[in-house]
Amino acid sequence: MKFFLDTADVNEIRELVETGLVDGVTTNPSLVAQAGRRFEDVLIEICELVPGPVSAEVTDTTFEGMLAEGRHLAKVASNVVIKVPLTIEGLKACRILSREGIKVNVTLCFSPAQAILAAKVGASFVSPFIGRLDDVGEAGMTLIYEIVEIYRNYPEFTTEILAASIRHPIHVVDSARAGAHVVTMPPKVLRQLYNHPLTDKGLSAFLNDWKKTGQKILAR
Ligand code: E4P
């Protein structure tokens, strides 16, 4: 399973790349706005830090506009993946960009029917938004299970399921259980994955007992 970071904060990415756990990055216009910097500058820096796929989202809503923006952003770095919304125009653009050899992440997927369309137009990734479905009282994780089940029926579907809108570690664990290929998570959630109170308690007890022995492992 691949871990992507869902952020446009270069400092956070730089720090977490050191863990060896970051396989890629996803950004969106809201995350770029939070970063408060020029999009392309941020994108170049992220692509240098992370060799894996880095999603950059188009903001035009027309087929022609998305094609133009997608082709432009794809030239920024070889690991840029173009993010398009799951609309008729977006999927038309996905089909063409994919045929040109540009990887596309179809974002804002909220139903299994939409995920079938994304696979049929050759998307490299489809991003079902779990947290936003939970927010409106739907079981977001059910969508991941449904897409995994559907894609398994059709070996010609090569689209990777990228679980998005992740809010907490249980979303990551459940996405893994469902068989999502990738989970994109905010930096905070990646850090939370390490935590368990019994780890802290156990370590503290071991260190206290070790101190009582008066020994040092590297003592000469
Ligand atoms: C995915 O690529 C999106 O950037 C992201 O996961 C959206 O998450 P949110 O619902 O927390 O904004």
Structural class: alpha/beta
Q: In DSSP terms, counting alpha (H) and pi (I) runs of 4 or more, how many helices? A: 11
Q: What is the CATH top level name?
A: Alpha Beta
Give the overall pLDDT as a whole number.
97
> Which bin fits the share of residues in helices?
40-55%
Task: Give a quick account of the main beta sheet: strands, pairing sense, barrel closure.
Answer: 8 strands, parallel, barrel
Rg, Å, rounded: 20 Å
SSE order: EHEHHEHEHEHEHHEHEHH
- The proportion of residues in beta strands is 15-25%
List the helices and strands and how they pair.
Elements: E1 2-6, H1 10-17, E2 24-26, H2 29-35, H3 39-49, E3 54-57, H4 63-74, E4 80-85, H5 88-99, E5 104-109, H6 112-120, E6 125-128, H7 130-135, H8 140-152, E7 160-163, H9 169-178, E8 182-185, H10 187-193, H11 197-213
Helix pairs in contact: 1-3, 4-5, 6-8, 8-9
This protein binds erythose-4-phosphate.
